[in-house]
Amino acid sequence: MPTSLASQPNANEAFWVEARSTYDSLDWQRRFTKQVFNFIRQQAAWLALTSPPTTDVRLLDYACGPGIVSLSMLPYVTSTLGMDVNPHQVSEYNRRASGANLPTTLCHATTGDLITTPVDPALSTAEFTSFDYAVCSAALHHMDDPAAAVARLADRVKVGGKVVIIEFLAKDEDVPAGEEERRRMNEEYRLRSHDNTHLVAGPMPPSQHGLKHGHGHGHEHSHEHSHEHSHEQGHGHEHGEGEGRHRHGPHGFKLEEMRGFFAAAGLVDVKSVIAPEKIVIEGFGEWDSFMMQGTKA
């Protein structure tokens, strides 16, 4: 029988002990990451995950940040590849995995962007395809073309594999934004709400100027297609007052909107579940979140 990654001695405990980055430095950030962790564990059966796995199960943790999704799925998978555009987040992921004694052959992260067109040919090898699960948590709302992002993730799973998105649920007053409006909102969200300077070691390469897609919950995740998606699932926002305060907060998705993205990506048996407790984002209040899955036909 295949061996789950969680069978490595004390892997779960060691991973949390290694969590000492700014990603989890604030109480509300730690609560957020624990909620994501618990949400995935609670929905394991719904996602057709078993512990231990009965066959080899490969996970792509996209926009991985320091690896909360990977950690939550340790008991159910046999190998995990984390991917993030931000090399600082990749380093943090790998530091934690190494500290938890997870073998790099089975659990590691790499710097990469699957959303940019054209995709780097180096990401077209067997290592980066035919996953059983491709999961993206709390990152899609920062992307200017979330439908395309879902489609790219669908490209990476095998037939019968699942794409899983965890996101904020749009509030009633939210109006779905067009491409230009979404970009403007992302720009404001990043500049007014996030302090990710601790993640930047030096000047951004010329090829990435204006192309970061930041998911500013602590991970900064640059994409070459103008996606401001700083995605660190710790939500490390700095908030000002008055005019300097971000007006929008995370721009979530309506369930029907997300179902449309999944359908356009050729995913079937699409279903969703709302998280049992609200997520509190400091400075932005309470948000419902949801998980949606679809299967590649």
UniProtKB/TrEMBL annotation:
<feature type="region of interest" description="Disordered">
    <location>
        <begin position="201"/>
        <end position="252"/>
    </location>
</feature>
<feature type="compositionally biased region" description="Basic and acidic residues">
    <location>
        <begin position="217"/>
        <end position="244"/>
    </location>
</feature>
<dbReference type="GO" id="GO:0008168">
    <property type="term" value="F:methyltransferase activity"/>
</dbReference>
<dbReference type="InterPro" id="IPR029063">
    <property type="entry name" value="SAM-dependent_MTases_sf"/>
</dbReference>
<dbReference type="Pfam" id="PF13489">
    <property type="entry name" value="Methyltransf_23"/>
</dbReference>
<protein>
    <recommendedName>
        <fullName>S-adenosyl-L-methionine-dependent methyltransferase</fullName>
    </recommendedName>
</protein>
<keyword id="KW-0949">S-adenosyl-L-methionine</keyword>
<keyword id="KW-0489">Methyltransferase</keyword>
<dbReference type="GO" id="GO:0032259">
    <property type="term" value="P:methylation"/>
</dbReference>
<keyword id="KW-0808">Transferase</keyword>
